[in-house]
Design brief:
The chain is mainly α. It is built from 3 helices and 2 strands. It is 34% helix and 4% strand. The longest helix has 20 residues.
């Protein structure tokens, strides 16, 4: 399956990423190769093969769920440059769709 450069540009735009034309071309080529390798798995005959959920013989170890006191909130916030009602204020990183 060929991944087009236009598809790479579209996903990059949605992700708010910018790539040069050379990078876009390289990504399209690499992603196409990856998808082709994954599609090869469809050719493997898995008839009669049991479902494998893990390759390791592990048992989930459960512990008793106990409530414990957390760190002192004032100590946690002592180096926070700006806060309000115990929330850390940070600069906005999202833009409106029209600004991108």
């Amino acid at each position: 399956m060929k991944i087009s450069e236009e598809e790479v540009r579209h996903v990059a735009h949605l992700s708010k990423l910018r790539f040069s034309d050379h990078e876009t071309s390289a990504f399209a080529s690499s992603l196409s190769k990856i998808v082709d390798m994954i599609e090869l798995l469809n050719e493997v005959d898995t008839e009669g093969v049991a479902v494998t959920t893990t390759m390791a013989d592990r048992t989930t170890v459960m512990r008793k769920d106990e409530a414990k006191a957390g760190p002192d909130r004032a100590e946690l916030f002592k180096n926070v440059p700006e806060q309000e009602d115990y929330y850390i204020k940070v600069p906005a990183i999202l833009e409106d769709e029209g600004d991108a």
